[in-house]
Amino acid sequence: MSDTETRHCLPRIRSSYSQFSEKERQVADYILNHSNKIIHSTINQVAEDLNVADATVFRFCKRIGFKGFQAMKIALAAEIVNPIQDIHETITETDSTKEVAEKVLRSNIRTLEDTYHILDNATIDQAVQILLNATHIEFYGNGGSGIIAMDAQHKFIRTGLRSTSYSDAHLQIMSASQLLSSDVAVLISHSGTNKDMLRVADIAKETGATTIAITNLATSPLSKKVDIPLYTVSQETDFRSEALASRIAQLSLVDALYVNVMIARKEKSKHSLQLMREAISSKRI
Predict the structure, then answer these.
(1) In 3-state terms, what secondary structure has residue 230?
(2) pLDDT for 50 beyond 90
(3) The pTM is what?
(4) Contact present, 109 and 89 (Cβ < 8 Å)
(5) For residue 24, which phi and psi values (nearest 5 degrees)?
(6) What does 132-186 look like in DSSP terms, one character per residue?
(7) φ, ψ at 115 (rounded to 5°)
(8) Which of 3, 7, 23, 160 could form a disulfide linkage to 71, CB 3.0–4.6 angstroms apart?
């Protein structure tokens, strides 16, 4: 059973509680009573608090259907991130212009914090290494995600790596069909259920290219199709859609990938930036 199929961590613990051994119940009680603490902890910290071996915590995560502690933590984070409910975040029709602005900004901060807490360092590192070795990087996105794809290309063109972005569904399919096994396709979709993106993912996989997705932390077909899924966390309110808030986290993940690639390429990136600045200087007064 996949992690995305078992992402409801707390209900699974409660429903299976009677079947747990004494040590398993010890871990289960800790998760049920300290959920908010766990999403900010490492497996070592949890094990120390419980005075058990790391392997005991790891086996419990496997017992309830996850690949490991990190996968369980991602699922747990998605469950306990409450809908926006703080008074400063709940936008109402009677709010002043300043109050609305403040709440929107706080919501963006919350989205970034929640995304940070479910960030998997190993997955980010894997994505960076794949991008560094890519012959060509193509970014795909539709609608609002298409704007994120364009921003990604706008950044990555500075690295000296060949990159392109597509927001037109037909061009996406045509381009994906021409990918090589040494290329990387980065698919951006908040819902992870966009039919065009799923088709692009299938075509890219057929070419042998490596696929990366930036998508919301939820069970989605896209996260299952790609080689490397990167997740964001955002909440929806009456006046602000979940996808709207997720743009901030998507942009930040792109920034994180870009900066890591720039650092790894060092002199090559510096040379690319110099050439670009010289070319752009002709556009300025």
Answers:
(1) strand
(2) yes
(3) 0.69
(4) no
(5) -65, -40
(6) HT-S-EEEEE-THHHHHHHHHHHHHGGGTS-EEEE-SHHHHHHHHTT--TT-EEE
(7) -65, -40
(8) 3
